[in-house]
Design a protein that fits this description.
482 residues; mainly alpha; two-stranded antiparallel sheet
């Protein structure tokens, strides 16, 4: 029988720590004297105590490390349990959300999806605005750690390529998981501080700069205003585009830079491919905006750059209603949401390296048909890729699009039209945030969806953030057998 005690103990420690992190928004509300500090005082106390009880109740469980099953269960459980506690401030505070809406908001935050059910966001108390940003910031760094420390060891969706003992893994620089966590967190915090300073120089208010810096580096998309970036000004858009791009690069390469190793960054094919994709997207949108929509050059470039990078990386910020740009931009924006950024970053969706492997596999098969006696093996960064890795990537793609189809059908059963159902499913699965259409598009939100749709999307956000298999494995009957 699967021993749950080590998993519960770790979750208890994480939950208790999560409760402590509610102190900053409580202190901010207390400092501003807006009378809402009790929201996070109560929420933090309840969260800390329940986490402490879980940890103490299982403290005597053997500490010999986690098995593969326990690791799968831990990853899925953390991202399922934390939104429950992250939702408490939305319920007990002035926002007064239902549990369904509060859980949806917290899940969207921690999975860095950025889909929101909240309206009149700028009217919420400052502590809650800070909390929304913190949820995404925590989710962003957690995703990097999971991607570098767990998924490669579990062989999820081709992440085997990023094992620590491979040339492309962080292990050559940081051989222990604890050191990976410390180093990644330091890099992530450093970028967040620099991003915050840049936003201040761009004219943002201090609280806005802090929140937008956290959600930018998390490629999350939560903001302090209903219109996202549309009222923040051109300078803020350029800052946002730059740091969304930096957050989408592999953090292991920043670890290389710390060790004064520049060549891995310059020679990484995933990064070069990602840059080329951005160039094609921005130039395509720019040309359309100039020649079809007759938009001035600088404005067309800025809007194309910002919104293109935002959707590609799954951040979900919007600085314009791209739904009104025309059929081609809308189609392109929908498609690029499935790409995502680089593995080992805060971005979501399929990831660039999987498309590289897919095209390498297709090329190898085509060459094999042309010359049956030739040995053609898919390569990644000049190295042969094992068949099991290729199969893992192909299986991931199949499961991804099958999940997309099932989710679309489930949403359509609630009465949503096809475009809203499909784009909502895609936005949740790829952790993007805004969908298409009037209801959940760039100028809308998810508030009017019924409860069933919100629970479906909450589950899909969780599954998409953990690369699908970590969640589906835990839900399988065979997982719980001896």
């Amino acid at each position: 029988m699967l021993d749950l005690r080590p998993v519960v103990r770790v979750i208890g420690v994480i939950v208790a720590t999560f409760g402590v992190t509610m102190l900053p928004p409580m202190l901010l509300d207390l400092f501003l004297g807006n009378g809402t500090s009790g929201t996070f005082g109560v929420s933090g106390f309840v969260t800390f105590m329940l986490g402490l009880i879980m940890a103490l109740a299982t403290w005597n469980s053997r500490d010999a490390g986690l098995t593969i099953k326990q690791t799968y269960l831990l990853m899925a459980s953390v991202f399922a349990v934390l939104p429950v506690f992250g939702a408490i401030p939305f319920i007990v505070g002035p926002a007064n959300l239902s549990f369904t809406d509060a859980f949806f908001e917290a899940m969207s935050g921690l999975t860095t999806t950025g889909a929101t059910i909240m309206t009149d966001i700028s009217q919420q108390h400052e502590g809650l605005l800070l909390w929304r940003g913190m949820l995404q910031w925590f989710g962003g760094v957690s995703v990097i750690i999971v991607a570098l420390a767990f998924l490669p060891l579990l062989g999820v969706g081709g992440m085997e390529l990023f094992r620590w003992d491979s040339d492309h893994a962080l292990g050559n620089v940081l051989p222990r998981a604890a050191e990976v966590t410390r180093t990644v967190s330091t890099i992530y915090l450093g970028f967040s501080v620099i991003c915050c300073l840049a936003y201040l120089l761009a004219g943002l208010k201090p609280l806005d700069a802090v929140v937008y810096a956290m959600t930018t580096m998390a490629t999350g998309g939560f903001g302090n205003y209903d219109d996202s970036f549309q009222s923040l000004g051109p300078a803020a858009e350029y800052v946002g585009a730059l740091f969304m791009f930096l957050a989408a690069l592999p953090f292991l390469r920043y670890g290389d830079l710390i060790k004064r190793k520049v060549s891995p960054l310059l020679s990484d094919s995933q990064i070069s491919t990602f840059v080329k994709i951005i160039f094609v997207i921005v130039m395509s949108l720019l040309a359309w905006q100039i020649f079809v929509n007759d938009v001035p050059l600088e404005q067309a470039f800025r809007k194309s750059l910002f919104n293109g990078i935002s959707i590609l990386t799954g951040t979900g910020f919007v600085s314009d209603d791209y739904g009104a740009w025309g059929a081609f931009p809308v189609t392109l924006i929908f498609i690029i949401g499935f790409i995502g950024g680089c593995a080992g970053s805060t971005t979501c969706s399929i990831k660039v390296f999987r498309f590289q492997l897919l095209f390498a596999t297709i090329l190898a098969r085509v060459l094999k048909l042309r010359s049956p006696h030739m040995v053609n093996v898919p390569r990644y960064d000049g190295k042969q890729v094992a068949p099991e890795v290729v199969n893992s990537v192909l299986l991931f793609l199949i499961v991804f699009f099958f999940t997309l189809a099932v989710t679309t059908v489930l949403l359509s059963l609630t009465g949503l039209d096809f475009i809203t159902s499909l784009s909502g499913a895609a936005s949740a699965l790829a952790n993007i945030g805004p969908g298409l259409g009037d209801e959940i598009g760039p100028n809308g939100n998810y508030a009017e969806l019924d409860e069933f749709a919100k629970w479906v999307l909450s589950f899909v956000m969780l599954a998409g953030r953990l690369e699908l298999f970590a969640v589906f494995a835990v839900l399988s009957i065979s997982f719980w057998r001896q």
